């Protein structure tokens, strides 16, 4: 069995543990992720939902169309998102991981929304839209691809 990957919010009121290796690690440049994180680009670590266990009682949710984002209700740290169109998957904010350097992104998503002053000179694949196709053709922010 793989060693557990742990993380949580800034104040420690929300903690989580993933019992397996992630299936997805990526950057996202979409406007919805920018607003949710407050950063010019977000990075996510994707796991199968049943492989992640949360502890603490401060986890809060915000729903926006098919996407539900979680955050700490005390310190406000963004934690994760789930998309109802991607059953059984959860995407944890890379910055919420205890060992974020372990999770190296493998591609960029929504680069058509990348801020013009943000330069990330890596050789990773770049997707104009989502890097995780939704079965109904919608993007992660609820609009059509």
Q: Estimate nothing, just give the exact number of structural domains.
A: 1
Shape: globular
Rg from alpha-carbon coordinates: 15 Å
Determine the mean pLDDT: 90
Protein name: Glutathione-dependent formaldehyde-activating protein
Pfam families: GFA
GO molecular function, one term: carbon-sulfur lyase activity
Organism: Mesorhizobium prunaredense
Please name the defining characteristics of this protein.
1 helix; 34% strand; mainly beta; 7-stranded mixed sheet; 3-stranded antiparallel sheet
Task: Write up this protein.
This protein has 145 residues and is mainly beta. It has a single domain, classed as Metal Binding Protein, Guanine Nucleotide Exchange Factor, Chain A, CATH 2.170.150. 5% of the residues lie in helices and 34% in strands. The chain is built from 1 helix and 10 strands; from the N terminus they run βββαβββββββ. The strands form 2 sheets. A 7-stranded mixed beta sheet has the order 6-7-8-9-4-3-10. Strands 1-2-5 form a 3-stranded antiparallel beta sheet, with no helix packed on it. A hairpin with a 5-residue loop joins β8 and β9. It is globular, with a radius of gyration of 15 Å. The C terminus is likely disordered.
């Amino acid at each position: 069995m793989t060693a557990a990957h742990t993380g949580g919010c800034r104040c420690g009121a929300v903690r989580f543990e993933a019992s397996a290796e992630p299936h997805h690690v990526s950057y996202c440049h979409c406007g919805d992720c920018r607003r949710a994180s407050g950063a010019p680009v977000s990075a996510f670590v994707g796991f199968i939902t049943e492989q992640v266990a949360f502890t603490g009682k401060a986890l809060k949710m915000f729903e926006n169309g098919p996407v539900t984002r979680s955050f700490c209700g005390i310190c406000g740290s963004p934690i994760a998102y789930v998309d109802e169109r991607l059953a059984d998957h959860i995407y944890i904010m890379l910055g919420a991981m205890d060992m974020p350097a372990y999770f190296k992104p493998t591609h960029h998503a929504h680069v058509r929304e990348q801020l013009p002053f943000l330069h990330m000179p890596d050789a990773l694949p770049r997707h104009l839209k989502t890097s995780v196709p939704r079965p109904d053709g919608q993007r992660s922010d609820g609009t059509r691809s």
